[in-house]
Amino acid sequence: MKAHTSWTLWQIMTPKQTAPIWATTRQPLTRVLHIVEDPRTAFWFFRSLHKQAQAQCSLTSISHIQQAAEKLHSQHFDAIFIHIGSHTHQHIGDINRLKEWAEHAALVAILHTDDEPSKGHNSNLKSAGHPHSTQQKHSDSQQVDQLLEAGIDDYIKAQDINTPLLPRLVSYAVERKQAHIRLAAMSQQDTITRLATRVEFVHALDAQLITAYGSVRNTAVLIIDLDQFKSINDDRGHTTGDKLLRAVANRLKKSLRQSDAIARLGGDEFAVMLTDMPNIESIQRVASNLLESLNQVFTIGADTLFTTASIGISLLSQKNETSEALLKHANMAMASAKQQGGNRYAFFTRNLQVAASLRVSLETELSKAIANKEF
To answer: How is residue 109 annotated by DSSP?
Structure first.
């Protein structure tokens, strides 16, 4: 075995296998990165996987966290195992860096107690068999809590490396991480329309705000609200309402460029971000096209449905503007368009903000007057 500063990649194969796994099966290879200072610990880790593993996996061992950046930028790993000593706070920075370098990999901590150094000097890595004191158990529990808060996906005690637990833990950790990634991807997509959600739209808008300042081109946020949706939903049922929302989403996408962001904010409300628009007239044309595309009959099964929309538009105009402000202003403009009868668009103006502020103040004062019986 080479010096611990330059370990090589081991291919772990199931018993009785003579050819490389990738030549005999289509099952994906599980790639494991092991960060450990002591070569003997690395050997026991490898030996346990080689001896016990039924899953197909490869193992790369490195001695320092500094080497991880290069490895993780040049290779894909499904799981990362890192040894953690009793002074947990010293490892939090390493965990944060590993999460940043390989956010899709399952991060697993190998825990060492005070009498079990993280460098792995105990070559057989087996438990001494003595029960933990109450104080030690409490300390272990605190350590696990700190590591979970820091972002690890799972953990294993050092004495369990040389047991059947290790290969199963590798498999379970990777499966859980992949399930978490799939769930996160689903949460970023609206389940009815397959459009982005409000959270994803705000992220995209925040990114645009960082880059848009100083540009001579225009950025606009449009809030689109259907005028007759509630009546259709109540009359024809939620199933038909959901199908109508999908049809509306498809028409909106067809009327926009691929570079434009579109999301469903909730209910029958959609949001669009137009970027790099040459002038105000071009934004008006887009809004008119969206209204026209929706002002056509929808055929949903045996139902023939008709709806229009109200669109509010806010423009990026100053450096301190936030995504929250742009959405709020577009929503005010949409409400103004709806008050004018719908099937139209309206731009946000400061007069709308003043009117909204006066309306809120009046409603507050009226509520106080009613409560105080001042009428």
So the answer is: E
Q: Measure CA 367 to chain center.
A: 42
Which contacts of 194-199 are long-range, i.e. CB under 8 A and separated by 24 or more positions? 194/246, 194/249, 195/249, 195/253, 195/262, 195/263, 195/264, 195/270, 196/261, 196/262, 196/263, 196/264, 197/263, 197/264, 198/263, 198/265, 198/266, 198/271
375 residues of the chain, pLDDT tens digit each:
344 444 444 444 333 444 443 344 455 678 899 998 888 888 888 888 776 555 577 888 898 888 888 888 888 999 999 988 877 777 888 888 898 898 889 999 888 865 444 444 344 444 444 554 555 555 667 777 788 878 888 888 888 777 777 777 888 888 888 877 776 666 678 889 999 999 889 988 888 887 655 454 588 999 999 998 999 999 999 999 999 999 999 999 999 987 889 999 999 999 999 987 888 899 999 999 999 999 999 999 889 999 999 999 999 876 657 899 999 999 999 999 999 999 999 999 876 655 555 555 556 666 666 777 776
CB atoms within 10 A of CB 333: 24
What CA–CA distance (Å, rounded) separates 155 from 171? 13
Are the CB atoms for 220 and 283 separated by under 8 Å?
Answer: yes
Alpha carbon distance 219, 216 (integer Å): 10
Token pair belonging to 61: 């061992």
Q: What is the separation, in whole angstroms, between the first and last Cα of the chain?
A: 91
The one-letter amino acid code at 74 reads S
Upper half-sphere CA count for residue 271 (Cβ side, 13 Å)? 27
Q: In Å, what is the CA distance from 185 to each residue of 46, 92, 196, 358? A: 33, 27, 10, 42
Enumerate the β-bridge partners of residue 346: 312
pTM over 0.70: no
Identify whether the C-beta of residue 32 lies closer than 8 Å to the C-beta of residue 58: yes
Q: Which helix (H) or strand (E) holds 73?
A: helix 65-74
DSSP symbols for 287-352: HHHHHHHHSS-EEETTEEE---EEEEEEE--STT--HHHHHHHHHHHHHHHHHTTSSEEEE--HHH
Say if CB 57 and CB 49 are below 8 A apart: yes
Query: Which residues are CB-neighbours of 152 under 8 A, at least 6 positions away?
Result: 95, 107, 108, 109
